[in-house]
Design brief:
By secondary structure, this protein is α+β, with helices and mostly antiparallel strands. Helix content is 43%, strand content 13%. It is globular and about 65 Å long. The model has no long low-confidence stretch (mean pLDDT 94).
Length: 336
Amino acid sequence: MDIVTQGLLGATVAVSGARKAEIKQAAWMGSFAGILADADILIRSGSDPLLNLEFHRHFTHALIFIPLGALIAAGLIWLLTRLFSSTDLSFRRMYYYAFLGYMLSGVLDAFTSYGTYLYWPFYDDRIAWSLVSIIDPLFSGILIVALVFAIKRQWTNATRIGLGLCVFYLAFSYAQSQAAYKAMTALASSRGHEVQRHVVKPTFGNVLLWRTVYLHDEVYYIDAVNTAFNNKIYPGTSVPALVMNDAYPQLDASSQQYRDIQRFDYFSDGFTATSAEQPNLVIDVRYSMIPTSAKPMWGVEIDPEQPDTHAPFVTFRDREPGQYRLFIDMVLGRDT
């Protein structure tokens, strides 16, 4: 999830296992460790735009890396306390709080649709349970309230209650995702389609409006389902799935751009297509600002005239008129 929520979760878990006299220290140490797992975002290359995609949420988020990640965090915490503050905590206690803060960073990201290499190096695929948005104010709010209450009242049980509520929230989200999946399969059946592949993911900031994407006969069908209003369906659009030999027959399999498309396809879990507006743009159909749209949030630009150069990674954040209002209407179950 977002870096703020990572820090909040790290602090909450650390405080839940803290001594009463060490609550404040546990909070900032756990928060620091929780954020540190996202330091892999700094792995990037000026010449290879896709390197950051490959390594973000990679080995630093793996379960096997937790003890080492916590050790690195504890070492940095020890250095910070020597430079900027004083503490009577031993390094062992610092490592304990760093371990608690770090241990759920990868797990939390696995609950999003972006995914993480949770089981690396034993299983080299991204784990994405798609139960919460990358930014979810309600999930983050539970952690804030629990953490503030624990620090103000010196009551660690507040964080345990907060963590319990977060688990309940994820269970609720799972139930909503299953409802959205059933609505998607029913919609596909009504169209005479067979669901060959699919993804069901929450839309921005909530677990009531879901984006559904399924593959039938080399075409992706994109719709939205509001599970809070009797599984209200918002029919969307469709886009042909990417077939390399058809889309870019001029690219040799040994060329850099061909390999970059394969790398982006792997990152996108195979949910790739060619943009209808830009034939040389390969997009990730899992994401769009509007849940019924195929307008991309990111993609890679292909230049068949320069097959041995890296394909640039591009993002799209421009809002169209009425886009925000349309999204809110869908979240509230209104007709659009």
